[in-house]
Specification:
- The protein has 211 residues and is of the alpha/beta class.
- Helices cover 34% and strands 14% of the residues.
- The chain has a 6-stranded parallel sheet, sandwiched between helices.
- Helix 5 links the parallel strand 5 (132-137) and strand 6 (159-160).
- Helix 1 crosses helix 6 and helix 3 crosses helix 5 (144-155).
- The chain is globular.
């Protein structure tokens, strides 16, 4: 099975990336993981996660199991600055890439074709090889610059999934709202899941377009 690249950047919303990793681990899906320097700070502030390390084979070895059991399974962690990592080359076969959450700085760099770190380079490879790239931008309000960068990437086939939760499934907890967004990410990758209830219509049949 080809691995997926998952990148976590320094935008608020680290919980989305962490939950995606947990779900992929539960599905026994191999993951190539990159965490930006700023993302590590955000993960500590928002989730209390720190000290993430890897062994000599880049396998994730120190993830707080009390927070997210099973996350380390099948995950290879790459240094944010390591341009010798296999995912820095388009010849390395991956099934797709997700950047969750994605900062506006990262999004802008990708839209401009920059490759100043491993996340940007892996995204550049994903685009040039015609593979699936899903970006979860976390910023509000959005400026014209942000919108234009997203439009440019969307025109290249990049899937933009803003973390805008729905409430038609009678979501009650933050975890329900997080699972809705993670489910939407998996939808874009074509991965089956049961993270949120699908809309099947109302009894009166007078509601349309919920997603």
């Amino acid at each position: 099975m080809k691995p997926y690249v998952v990148a976590i950047t320094g935008a608020s919303g680290a919980i989305y990336g962490v939950r995606l990793l947990q779900v992929m681990a539960e599905m026994n899906m191999p993951v190539e993981l990159v965490i930006s320097d700023t993302a590590k700070i955000v993960m500590k502030e928002e989730l209390g996660i720190e000290g993430i390390t890897q062994d000599n084979n880049r396998c994730l070895t120190s993830w707080p199991q009390s927070l997210t059991p099973g996350v380390e399974k099948g995950i290879h962690l790459h240094d944010f600055h390591d341009f010798t990592a296999p995912i820095a080359s388009g010849s390395y076969p991956v099934a797709g890439m997700v950047i969750v959450p994605c900062s506006m700085g990262t999004l802008g760099a990708i839209a401009s074709g920059l490759s100043q770190n491993l996340i940007q380079r892996a995204a550049d490879c994903t685009i040039k090889e015609g593979r699936k790239l899903v970006i979860v931008p976390r910023e509000t309000p959005l400026s014209v610059i942000h919108l234009e960068n997203m439009l440019k990437l969307a025109r290249l086939g990049v899937r933009i999934v803003p973390p805008m939760p729905a409430f038609y499934g009678a979501q009650q907890q933050i975890s329900d709202l997080v699972d809705f967004i993670v489910g939407k990410i998996l939808d874009q990758l074509g991965i089956s899941h049961g993270l949120y209830p699908r809309w099947v219509g109302s009894l009166s049949g007078d509601q349309e377009g919920l997603s």
